[in-house]
TrEMBL record:
Protein name as catalogued: DUF6879 domain-containing protein
Taxonomic lineage of the native organism: Bacteria, Bacillati, Actinomycetota, Actinomycetes, Kitasatosporales
DUF6879 domain mapped to chain residues: 81-241
Protein source organism: Streptomyces bauhiniae
Pfam (any one): DUF6879
């Protein structure tokens, strides 16, 4: 079976080598670096077998990016704690949305209204809108990039219509076609202040099963790298909406 490697990090400033990857299936750490080839050096390695390879990497690579514990124990939080993050963040809150639909949307009366009329209503007195409006008016940034399919699912069409309400309270909503998002993690998460990640776990019916907080610096950086890549390639909501309308 082919390995499923996830890039962990690099200390390189130019070409990405040396670097660390993790095998998602086995948990093994793959070290990428300069091969050790000189016979005298290889002769000094203990337990070096005929099928082995040796690479040289800076100590800093392992210190900065190496796993800090044998087994990661997820820190799970309840919904109330998760909601408080949107009240206490200092400057930025950003989300990547990758699923084709969400159970919470399908259960929303606004979704049923959209199915009936093609337009979603909105109550700006809802706590979400009240809080986000207060945060953005205070100079903070709230944004999302949504991965979209061709054609858009019904749930994605609903969210595209509903995004005008999010924009009205200051959210920056952008879109990225799934075919252009192959280098992004297939995960939904929020990043708060580039220091804390709330990873959302879902079941097969698109319900959130739990919320995991990640504060380990190397892991947070990995999600920030994904954010930067998504923002670079995504297009603004109104431009995306025009493309969808043009495609019919």
């Amino acid at each position: 079976m082919a390995r499923q490697l996830r890039f962990v990090g690099t200390d390189s400033k130019v070409d990405g080598c040396p670097a660390l990857h993790t095998d998602e299936g086995t948990g093994e750490v793959i070290v990428q670096g300069t091969p050790v080839t000189d016979p005298e050096g290889l002769a000094q390695l203990q337990h070096f077998g005929p099928g082995d390879a040796a690479v040289a990497v800076p100590r800093e690579l392992l210190v900065n990016w190496g796993p800090k514990e044998m087994e990661c124990v997820p820190e799970l939080v309840d919904r109330a704690t998760f909601r408080r993050l949107f009240e206490t963040f200092k400057h930025t809150a950003w989300r990547l949305e990758t699923r084709r639909g969400y159970a919470s949307d399908r259960e929303d009366p606004d979704f049923q209204a959209f199915l009936a009329t093609g337009s979603s209503p909105c109550d700006f007195s809802e706590p979400w809108f009240v809080n986000i409006k207060a945060q953005t008016e205070a100079g903070k940034t709230v944004g999302r990039v949504r991965v979209a399919d061709k054609p858009l699912t019904t749930e994605q069409l609903f969210l595209l219509d509903y995004a005008r309400h999010n924009a009205a309270v200051g959210e920056d909503i952008r879109y990225l076609w799934r075919e252009d998002a192959t280098d992004l993690p297939a995960e939904d998460f929020w990043i708060f202040d580039s220091r804390l990640v709330a990873l959302l776990h879902f079941d097969d019916a698109d319900h959130i099963t739990n919320i995991e907080l990640i504060t380990e610096p190397a892991e947070v950086v990995r999600y920030c790298i994904a954010r930067d890549a998504a923002m670079h390639h995504a297009i603004a909501r109104d431009e995306f909406e025009a493309l969808v309308a043009e495609a019919g």
